[in-house]
Structure formats: C-alpha cells, structure tokens
Design goal:
This is Phage ABA sandwich domain-containing protein. The protein is an alpha+beta fold. The chain has helices spanning 5-14, 41-53, 87-101; strands at 18-21, 24-27, 30-33, 57-62, 67-72, 78-84. The longest helix is centred in the C-terminal third of the chain and has 15 residues, at 87-101.
C-alpha cells in the first residue's frame, strides 16, 4: 500500500471520521475534505492527536535516511512499527498496524 488516498481513507475510518461524499468527511461534527494523513505533516499531527485519544502513542524517530515510527501503549509496549522515507506515511502504517493488532481494523 502506497501513501495517498487508500491509506488516508483507512486512517479516517480508524479514527472515527464518517464519509458523507467522496473526499468529504465529518470531523467533530463539521464537514471537511479528507485529510492527507499519509503525505502532509499538518494532517499527520491530526493523526497523532486522534491516536493518543485511543491510547496509541506515536513516536516518530528521524535518522539520516528515513523516519521510524513506533506505535506504543501507555505502558510503552510497541504494538506497531514502520520505517519509511516520509514521516507521515510511517506514522500511518504504524498506527494501522497497532489497530490491527488490537483487532479493530482489518
């Protein structure tokens, strides 16, 4: 799965946004364009906050050639991890893996 629309839709569903039209979702009771969670830093920030509300804590670790993102529980157990050249994409994949391990997203 590549960064982009498919990943963004999975994230939107996993954090509880509701699709009302193609590329139009309800967030906090307000219609909004589908955030670009997997490709922009600003929308990745929305994911980080929404994940925290679900008890999933995203640690983004930059290094020379890539970003490592670890999804952790409150007790610091790693429940998802991804390494990608783009931080937003790594955060999305780590979050989705964490949700899958918890049996919430398929």
């Amino acid at each position: 799965m590549q960064a982009g629309l498919e990943v963004d839709k999975k994230i939107a569903e996993a954090i509880g946004l509701q699709e009302i039209l193609p590329d139009m979702w309800i967030r906090n009771g307000v219609p909004t364009i589908l955030p670009k969670f997997s490709t922009t830093w600003g929308d990745m920030g929305v994911l980080v906050e929404e994940a925290r509300k679900q008890g999933i804590y995203l640690d983004i670790l930059p290094n020379e050639t890539c970003y490592i993102c670890e999804a952790k529980t409150i007790s610091n157990a790693i429940i998802g991890q991804a390494t990608k050249s783009e931080a937003p994409y790594a955060a999305c994949l780590a979050f989705l893996e964490a949700k899958e391990k918890r049996g919430i997203v398929r």
